[in-house]
């Protein structure tokens, strides 16, 4: 029996509940579907940023393509208004399958094909079209459930849509990622999406469906949920296989922290590689050459108190602690997972000389920029051991404002050294970093060290940038007054590779490829994306 107190209006749906209850159920479905839709968008942005870097570009591409596609989907949905219920049910099943599997397919594309950009565009378009088709169909359904003025119906729909988007946007970073991770989180969202859309149509509008349409929707939703459930069960095996495809067969540790994914490969100290979000951060094959060139030129002069920004792996600290007259070393590292591994992993701890066991070393878990703003001490040496400046998340740590804060933390006669990325393959970024240090009120001496063995990152589409594999490291040595001399302290320990001759060559090597006229990078005008 139909539980309604008034005769059916022409075109009204034959509901098993009162019209007001049916309207609330439709709005609840709008809320759930909107939350799932925003999770898909954020998942694409997050995974694309992780796989290809430059989160600003990836977010812009995903969001602009999806908004454009939503307009197309709204137009296409006009053809389905006469069969709004079955159309909405099939669209939600398709959206659940495409959105739920998007993270898995993107990661597979990156791992085995070495390229995820085309898949990213395809998913952004498809998900956008399907999301765009929802609102016109839902508008038709809610009008059939409870006839009201168009303005009121639109207001209700968009209110439920926006509140659902808020919940989805908050659930993604604070619930789904910590509990499930990227792959399983997307699959779970797809299952919720399919269940909500299917339940609404198959129960609330079941009397308006033909037998054939009803079985089609049941089959579609059962198939989608079964596929997503199967993928969830196999997600761990898939992730291990994909990780082997990216990093090789030597993966020993893989940890997802609240900041990034940390992967260690290699069994012993001499074969160790450390990857942060897929990018090669440390390779035992050439890390000593890098860290000697980074640290020791800055140690010429007073060096009792040393500040290391980044460098949670302990390798820069290892070089600093080789000076017996160093009294205090402070390491400011954003991700405590890195410092934890540097303490506890046998191979990494051996590589860093068990630096974290030295009583002179203390660690601070904080963003370097934020910490410098509140810092009250002064340091003889500041070592900026941070990711390459082309990575958007680190751009503020290569800004003129950041170097101004670093300069203020220097004691009289103190020195700052900055890792500024490869010179040969990314000259614009390197010389922008040098200009930014100068804009921070410091006098600079750039230098370039060759002999780099390890590439830029794991994965076929990230080993090179613009077809050029990095073969050097670029550094900027700076002080608050005169241009600092490039040399070694008389009390420097015996070094395996670096000497006065190598430093003279490093000085000349940088000046020969100088790119003049570069403007500094600032917080409001970052300039490191030209070569990304």
Automatic annotation (TrEMBL):
It is found in: Cell membrane. It is a multi-pass membrane protein. The chain crosses the membrane at residues 21-40, 60-77, 89-113, 119-142, 154-177, 183-204, 216-235. Keywords: Cell membrane, Membrane, Polyamine biosynthesis, Spermidine biosynthesis, Transferase, Transmembrane, Transmembrane helix. Gene3D superfamilies: Vaccinia Virus protein VP39. Belongs to the spermidine/spermine synthase family. Pathway: Amine and polyamine biosynthesis; spermidine biosynthesis; spermidine from putrescine: step 1/1. It is an enzyme of class 2 (transferase). GO terms for biological process: spermidine biosynthetic process. One of its GO terms (molecular function) is spermidine synthase activity. This is Polyamine aminopropyltransferase. It comes from Streptomyces fulvorobeus. It catalyses: S-adenosyl 3-(methylsulfanyl)propylamine + putrescine = S-methyl-5'-thioadenosine + spermidine + H(+). Residues 512-532 are annotated as: Disordered. GO terms for cellular component: plasma membrane. It comes from the Bacteria. Spermidine binds at residues 291, 313. Its main location: membrane. Its EC number is 2.5.1.16. Residues 226-480 form the PABS domain. InterPro entries: MFS_trans_sf, PABS, PABS_CS, SAM-dependent_MTases_sf, Spermi_synthase. S-methyl-5'-thioadenosine binds at residues 260, 333, 367-368. The active site is at 385 (proton acceptor).
């Amino acid at each position: 029996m139909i539980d309604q107190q008034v005769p059916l209006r022409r075109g009204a749906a034959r509901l098993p509940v009162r019209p007001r209850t049916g309207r609330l159920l439709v709005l609840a479905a709008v809320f759930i579907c909107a939350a799932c839709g925003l999770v898909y968008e954020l998942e694409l942005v997050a995974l694309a940023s992780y796989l290809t870097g430059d989160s600003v570009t990836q977010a812009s591409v995903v969001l602009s393509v999806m908004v454009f596609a939503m307009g197309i989907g709204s137009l296409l949905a006009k053809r389905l208004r006469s069969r709004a219920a079955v159309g909405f049910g099939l669209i939600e099943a398709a959206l659940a399958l495409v959105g739920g599997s998007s993270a898995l397919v993107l990661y597979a594309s990156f791992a085995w094909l070495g390229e995820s950009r085309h898949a990213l565009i395809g998913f952004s378009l498809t998900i956008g079209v399907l999301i765009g088709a929802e609102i016109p169909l839902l508008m038709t359904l809610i009008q059939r459930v409870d006839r009201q003025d168009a303005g009121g119906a639109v207001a209700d729909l968009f209110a439920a849509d926006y509140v659902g988007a808020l919940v989805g946007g908050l659930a993604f970073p604070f619930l789904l990622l910590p509990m499930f991770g990227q792959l399983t989180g997307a699959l779970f969202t797809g299952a919720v999406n399919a269940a909500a859309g299917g339940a609404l149509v198959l129960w609330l509008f079941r009397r308006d469906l033909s037998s054939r349409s009803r079985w089609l929707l049941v089959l579609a939703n059962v198939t989608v949920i079964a596929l997503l459930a199967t993928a969830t069960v196999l997600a761990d095996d898939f992730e291990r296989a994909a990780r082997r495809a990216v990093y090789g067969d030597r993966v020993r540790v893989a940890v997802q922290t609240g900041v990034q994914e940390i992967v260690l490969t290699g069994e012993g100290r001499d074969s160790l590689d450390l990857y942060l979000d897929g990018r090669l951060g440390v390779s035992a094959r050439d890390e000593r050459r890098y860290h000697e060139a980074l640290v020791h030129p800055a140690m010429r002069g007073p060096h009792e108190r040393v500040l290391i920004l980044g460098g949670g792996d302990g390798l820069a600290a290892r070089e600093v602690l080789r000076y017996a007259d160093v009294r205090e070393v402070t390491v400011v590292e954003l991700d405590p997972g890195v410092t934890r591994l540097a303490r506890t992993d046998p191979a990494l701890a051996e590589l860093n000389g068990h630096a974290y066991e030295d009583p002179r070393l203390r660690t601070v878990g904080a963003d370097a920029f934020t910490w410098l703003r509140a810092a009250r001490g002064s340091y003889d040496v500041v070592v900026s051991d941070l990711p390459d400046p082309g990575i958007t998340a680190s751009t503020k740590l290569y800004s003129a404002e950041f170097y101004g804060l670093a300069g203020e933390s220097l004691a009289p006669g103190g020195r700052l050294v900055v890792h500024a990325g490869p010179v040969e393959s990314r000259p614009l970024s390197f010389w922008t970093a040098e200009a930014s240090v100068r804009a921070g009120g410091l006098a600079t001496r750039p230098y370039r060290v060759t002999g780099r063995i390890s590439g830029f990152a794991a994965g076929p589409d990230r080993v090179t940038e613009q077809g050029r594999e990095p073969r050097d490291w670029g550094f900027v040595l700076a002080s608050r007054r005169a241009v600092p001399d490039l040399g070694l302290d008389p009390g420097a320990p015996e070094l395996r590779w670096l000497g006065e001759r190598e430093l003279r060559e490093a000085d000349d090597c940088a000046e020969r490829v100088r790119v003049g006229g570069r403007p500094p990078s600032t917080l409001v005008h970052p300039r490191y994306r030209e070569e990304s």
